[in-house]
Amino acid sequence: MTDHLPDWHLDAALTTLREQMAGVETPPAVEDALLAAFRHQHRKKPRWTTLFALPRRGAGIGLAGLAAAVLTVMLVLSTPSHDPLPAQQLASADDGADFIALDTADHIAQEPSPRLIETDIARTALAALGVPLSPENAGDLVRAQFLVSADGRPLALRLLTGSPNHPPDRG
Amino acid sequence: MMTPTPPAPANDADLLRAMRGGDAPAFAALYRRHQAPLYRFAVLRCGSPAGAADIVQELFLGLLSNRFAYDPLRGPLLHYLFGVARLLILKLEASLHRDLPLPDIDDDDEAAPGAAEPLARLLSDETAEEVRRALATLAPGFRDAVILYELHELSYRDIAVICGIEVGTVRSRLARGRAALARQLAAYRSTPA
After folding, report:
1. A27 touches chain B (CB under 8 A)
2. CA–CA separation, B86 and B80 (whole Å)
3. What b-and-e string marks burial along B106-127, b requiring 16 or more CB atoms within 10 Å of the CB?
4. Do A18 and B150 touch (CB under 8 A)?
5. Please, which of A20, A36, B20, B35 could form a disulfide with B128 given CB 3.0 to 4.6 Å?
6. Is the pTM of this model over 0.95?
């Protein structure tokens, strides 16, 4: 009895395996999952997501500062003093200024029913986002627009020009 | 009247470029072109159809996210993906066999470390299944060489590039892998049913 298969016999066995494997393919579910991932990666982003910018580097904000700003904004928005903009005013409210993101780009893009709310907010509440603060303007209110989720979570904000107490343009 | 020549199928580099530009059919074409040989390699290499499907998915997700930096100047995309698949499987095996000593490829033993788990049946042909089970008993380096040479009919040079080894090492592992396979298959046939 031999302790190994002769070469020709091994070759024949390997050929059989190769022929049998020729019909084996990846399960169709893998292609479905990959195409879904591709569509997700290349989906068209809603127009308003191009309006915001992440806080600039070097502003010294950091995650803790951003979290504090978000918390402050949420507290402000929880009071009934803000004015949700009617739908037809949303487009005209877009004066091209960048939004500052208060959440990740993915969360903002996935929000199904964002709302734009305009309100006055204490300048001190926005200091963590890099809004200039001085002893002279520390008590000021700033007019801002907030993009909020359906459940009232702030997603992004931008300061409006012509806000009350906003320094006049020297140009 | 001359029959118009059909356009040549897009090459991998063109499909990759189109895919990165958001062309879904290009991505689908690239996947359909290469999924089968990659899956077959992974199934024979790791022994599990489910594990092989995960490997193929991870390969193409990596292409999609640009995690894998493929350079067309270094060889065909399929060979590059064989190499990545091999590394993904090695990483998976290392995590599964954390408590076992790492296989030293220079050892004399062509057998895989640890007891080989029984494989779920994949093929209807008894001989093919026997060879598949025997392959699973080989150490990873020998298994790679045998699968890429015997099943995918690649050259020594291509296998050397894919596995990151010298051509001489490919030759040696192939010879020893085949010998180990032959012994294992003879053992199966001499075992009473």
Report:
1. yes
2. 10
3. eeeebebbeeeeeeeebbeeeb
4. yes
5. A20
6. no
Q: B64 and A41 in contact by Cβ < 8 A? A: yes
Which residue carries 């006049």 as its tokens?
A168
CB contact residues (below 8 A), chain A span 86-115, against chain B: none
Q: Establish if A53 touches chain B: CB-CB under 8 angstroms.
A: no
By residue count, chain B amounts to 193
Residue of A69, A141, A58 whose CA lies nearest to A100 = A69
pLDDT in tens, chain B (193 residues): 677 776 677 899 999 999 988 999 999 999 999 999 999 999 999 988 999 999 999 999 999 988 887 888 889 999 999 999 999 999 988 887 665 554 444 445 677 654 445 566 677 788 899 999 999 999 999 999 999 999 999 999 999 999 999 999 999 999 999 999 999 988 877 766 5
List C-alpha distances in Å: B12 to A19, A151, B56: 26, 46, 17
Token reading at B93: 């095996």
Kindly state the tokens that stand for A134: 């001085």
> Is B64–A37 a contact, with Cβ atoms under 8 angstroms apart?
yes
B60 at the A interface (CB within 8 A)?
Answer: yes
Asked if A42 reaches chain B (Cβ–Cβ under 8 Å), the answer is yes
B181: which chain A residues are within 8 Å (Cβ-Cβ)? Answer: 5, 10, 14
Q: What angle do CA A35, A41, A42 make, to 5 degrees?
A: 90
What span, in angstroms and rounded, lies between the C-alpha atoms of A144 and A122?
10
